[in-house]
């Protein structure tokens, strides 16, 4: 397989790097109240999902079953290490100022086992003040959604390809999941990847990109009015992704901005808390400079974490991988989510 990868290098879409950075920044500024539009943060996450569906779907369509341990291992260390680091920092900060209660432990359990998106947000309104830092880590729900997608998608696309590589399968899933919300755009991303795998000239052409751009603009205008978010947001998200499917070479600036997007998304709460602490300690009045300080701290921290964590993971993952470790990752991933679901259904409800 390594030889095949060398002969056929993976496609690279440089505009996706800038898109990731923009989306993470939107979420950051939304949580900092600089962007007040209700759907801003959620819509940015929808685009993240569509992007993941497209990219991971494309990878899995070319992945053989014997290569699954490597796929899971690569996904796990790129997602888990930064996630658990951010999660640990959140818990430590919470322990400095909040008591440990049964409800506090419950929410920590959900985030640790990757099921917070299922059991956490529905309780936010009633129990938000009992969550670590009053629900500051609520945005972790989207990472949990993606982790669940990384476990389900390979089963369909690689283990049972006759079913999983069918457009009908993913279209039916999209319709069914429309009532759930979180997974629809991931499915649309996979659908686009399947179409691209079969008919690359249809997806990878200027006409399709232009049509996608027009649709995304129209969908965004509808979202600004009274249109149904649940119906229009997935269309907007996948249209944005398809409009930017332009192959090219990786650039230094793009790699850096795309690289810091994940640590920025995970850890921008630190910038917000730090900024609030600075203004409180020095008895400063609220002003526009508050947003500047918030952004500076968040971007600086994200860059630092990218260099010492995410970038190192990318550089070392081939050295760290072994078939046994890949299998252990698979076992841990499915077991942890199973424990989380059982715990959520049996012990906490």
TrEMBL record:
One of its GO terms (cellular component) is membrane. Pfam families: Acyl_transf_3. Keywords: Acyltransferase, Membrane, Transferase, Transmembrane, Transmembrane helix. GO terms for molecular function: acyltransferase activity, transferring groups other than amino-acyl groups. It comes from the Bacteria. The chain crosses the membrane at residues 12-31, 43-61, 77-96, 167-195, 207-225, 260-279, 291-309, 329-348. Residues 14-306 form the Acyltransferase domain. This is Acyltransferase 3. It comes from Alteromonas naphthalenivorans.
